[in-house]
């Protein structure tokens, strides 16, 4: 067996490094032949060695050239083969060997660098572990990761990679989610949290109930998406491809024409060598693949080169307010009773909102149950306490409310007897013979409920602080105001500033009232805002920005930042829809032009700057290519550059655009 | 029955190389569609499994001078 193994290893090695080996051998022979010819008088021997170099180096090229012809295409390999054979035919042995050697060297280096850009994706592919430890019939068994069934419990040891998508059922650990979301800091995970295949469990053991395996994981979807994005042709690429299909035949005709006119075979052959628009064709795809690969590593998914080109032109960014500029946790910050006890106000509101499923309702319910747990108020339906006006200003701690994740005690809030949700306004409910109305000004106006002046003043005051004020009405009388606030994301002001610094207009869109919107807009330093918008009005606002708001003003290239579900229509209407927190929500990954895997607003300036850099990079690459081809053509026709020189410049320009495009990998 | 198979070719060194493989394979009997992506090196072939064996595609890619890897 042993004697057999050696050749097969060699064969494999040879197959893998064939281009490199052929290039080196050709190069050595070329140098040897040139030396023989130049240093000694053995011209014939030198020529012989050069011919051998040409044949060895040219064999693969000629083979590919033959395939090109058989496929009825005319590519560079056919042209190089014709040029090399022609050069030998007219006795230009040195030129023939040089062309073949330089072309092999160039191809080898191109292949190597292209592999590097392709490997950005391979790094992602290697993230997912192959096996998983599953609890089956009371014992732990190791099975291939893709064979884990949904609902099975997977055990992940500290330091291990998580093999499946799922929900933590037991254990506690910090999970490094960088591979999926691009977040640099590990995220704390306990029971109830989602985890993703390919992320790294750092310090504690976790038990995970499987929700997705194999190709049905967030990571695999990301990989598929990145690949599709890299394969999608951008407008610049399609344009160049069309150009290339005319360029090569045109050069061929020019070459034949030049030979017919001048009888200069060398000139005609040199034209053939530069007849492939190599750098032009290869430049834009390398820029785009590098940029998309770089973005993916940082938790930003881009749908394709076309979107990247559009994103480079953005001059207006519209941010959704709630959940985008602000954290996704609205909390009650203040309850004030008017001729009514504050606890009573909160309780009434909680009953009415119990089934509303609105995020403000959830916050009120949470605050009410939190109150219940801490002060254990048993009184239900008790009389209003005293006649202080305005009465006890109860400050409930917003932070404490937010850390109570589940309204576990919500059972203690009774169900309303009847209730009706009025979209965009509030709820109308009845309980224990009382009619309860909880909502905004518009709802009170619609229900013909008078708002006393002191209540109105108080509401405006809270709104000016950027809070949302909700009226609580019992039997036609306003009994209290609940003030809610969603905290700004820490990164929001910085992000808005960097977007503005890039010369881009910023606008905030919100369903909130004018005063709250104004206060938040001021706090983040945004240029402009549009308040009291219904979802379809947000879409209309985006359209207005695109069309140009005022007559005679040209439209903007608009990016919209929002969450992938509620803001989906606006994201689709914008030139570039940017979805936040896309990890785990497949619709966002599918519909957005740009998806931020993490809830990390600060990726937006980076992504926009990468897009701009990509547009520049493509322009640079096209400029390099066009200049090279133009100068080469002029130099060849002017008899300044010949076969080998033409090849050297041609290959050099191809490498130059690849290296230039690869700069985007480290942007 | 229509089947789909994928290969990865890491040694395409120009966009034309990729389209050559595409042209060579698409005219084969039993091949319904093929897409070859230069930038990612991914080759995806939809074919009729009664008419052609997937191993044939590997040989065809090799015949064009490239090394297919399973994807």
Concise account of the structure shown:
Chain A: Keywords: Membrane, Metal-binding, Translocase, Transmembrane, Transmembrane helix. Chain A is α+β, with helices and mostly antiparallel strands.
Keywords:
heterodimer; A: Calcium-transporting ATPase, cytoplasmic transduction domain A; Calcium-transporting ATPase, cytoplasmic domain N; seven-stranded antiparallel beta sheet; 24 helices; 53% helix; B: 71 residues; alpha+beta; Alpha-Beta Plaits; four-stranded antiparallel beta sheet; 2 helices; metal ion binding (chain B); Heavy-metal-associated domain-containing protein (chain B); metal-binding (chain B); HMA_dom_sf (chain B)
Order of strands across the biggest sheet of chain B? 2-3-1-4
**Could you describe the largest sheet of chain B, including whether it forms a barrel?**
4 strands, antiparallel
Task: Give the SSE order of chain B as H and E letters.
Answer: EHEEHE
* Helix-and-strand structural type of chain A: alpha+beta
Q: Note the beta-strand portion of chain B.
A: 35-45%
Give the CATH architecture of chain B. 2-Layer Sandwich
Question: Please, what is the average pLDDT of chain A?
Answer: 82
Number of helical regions of chain A: 24
Number of domains of chain B: 1
Fold-level CATH name of chain B: Alpha-Beta Plaits
Report the sheet with the most strands of chain A, covering strand number, pairing sense and barrel closure: 7 strands, mixed
Sheet with most strands: strand arrangement of chain A: 10-23-22-21-11-19-20
Strand content of chain A: 15-25%
What is the mean predicted local confidence, pLDDT of chain B? 84
SS content category of chain B: alpha+beta
- Fraction in helix of chain B: 25-40%
